[in-house]
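I had to read the description of the data format several times before I understood it. The format is easy to grasp once an entry is in front of the reader. For illustration, here is how one protein appears when written out as sequence plus structure tokens:
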Amino acid sequence: MLILPLHRPLTRATFPVVTALLLLANVIVYFGFQWGDDAKLEAALVQYEQSGLARLEVPAYERWVETRGGRGKALDALRAAPDDKRGPLVARETLFDPDYERALQTGTPFADAKDFAAWKPLRARYDAQLEDIFTWRHVARASEFDLGRMLASTFLHADPLHLFGNMLFLVALGLLVEGAIGPWRFLVVYVLGGLGASAASLAWHWGEATAGLGASGAIAALMGAFCFIWGRQRVRFFFWIGVWFDYVRAPALWLFPAWLGWEVFNLLTQDDARVAFEAHAGGLVTGAVLGWALSATGQVRQAFLRDEDPAAARDDRWERAQRHIGRMQLAEADALLETLAAEQPQRVDVRIARYRVARNGGRAANALERAMDALSIDARDVASATAQVGLLDELDAQAIALPASLRLSLAQRFLAMQWPDAAEHALQGLPADEVVPEQSQRWFEVALRYRDAGAHDAHLRCLRLLAQRHPGQPQAAKARFLLEQA
């Protein structure tokens, strides 16, 4: 299940500074400090086996586990493992086990003093290797109440995909929560929420040899705070459950039981998911309490909650048209898009959507007419021009011939936007014998734009192409001169 609130666009006025700094901190920690930790850990585990440390610690660990209650699974797994797998198993099982570390230092798990004496120097070298691993030094370990680790672990991530997913939710929620309560309160919610999530995970896994990391607990706190800060106000959000997905509006408070129920359900049903559902639930509850407290004490910026264009809030025709297209309800989509095109004639995305409706409906002639209509609009921003280039690619892939005047107009427009590669693409579909004077002039301008941009190879390529396609034109003579000089 995915529920992502998307209630506000990101603008200069709503830019969440602390959210951006937190995102930057997470990225720097992962790529600047954690990167390479996996290789260091593997090297340490190899050294654990090869140094003879495993030979001493495996029987010591087995004796120690026998004296501990609640470790039956660990003991069964150790005894069932082949001899060559017992060392790696113990090494990984004890990575995050502070109780076992303390027991080793006393020497009680060892059979005799000789083994303990032989173990000390080997373990010292192994511990030095582990201390060199940034993640290992800062991860939150179960059965150990360490506020430093509990907070630091909220800035650690297992891999780039883990980092990306968390940062996506951080940006979406940060935009809504930081603007509503201000940067400093937002930071307090994030930090306390991360600690609350770590505490919940610690309580759930107490007595186990495991560890947790990731910003998801702190981000879950932002989710809980968001629900109670925005309260009964209707907000826009995207949801995806199995094969169902949509973009709808509902009271923010409704999301809290949905989010919390999902985490609790997974916590109780997925033992081996390797996801800290208990931390998510703990963060949600912590954030909800903080959000309720801030709202109840009047520390919420009501102006931010209300600061929305009423017309924009009511006008969801574009979103509804997209939903109709996704469901192949083409007539309904066409009706909405026709109205939007009449009211907002410069919107390239609306015109392209009308083309796709006609194409999906099997109306080839109408689709071509609408495609040319979309390409004829004088795009006023990069996004619209990029959409036109994509449509041009789509039509060229279908070998659909477009009027020469339209391609020349597109090329001129892209050149004005300092986009020579798009202009070149528009010209490539022109036969060499059509509108020769205008076409050769455009090719020459594309070549000069490439030169000005420092794209030397593209500059020469266009000069050669111009000289080959239109050898009798004045621009071709200029091209040959420039090629000789090059």
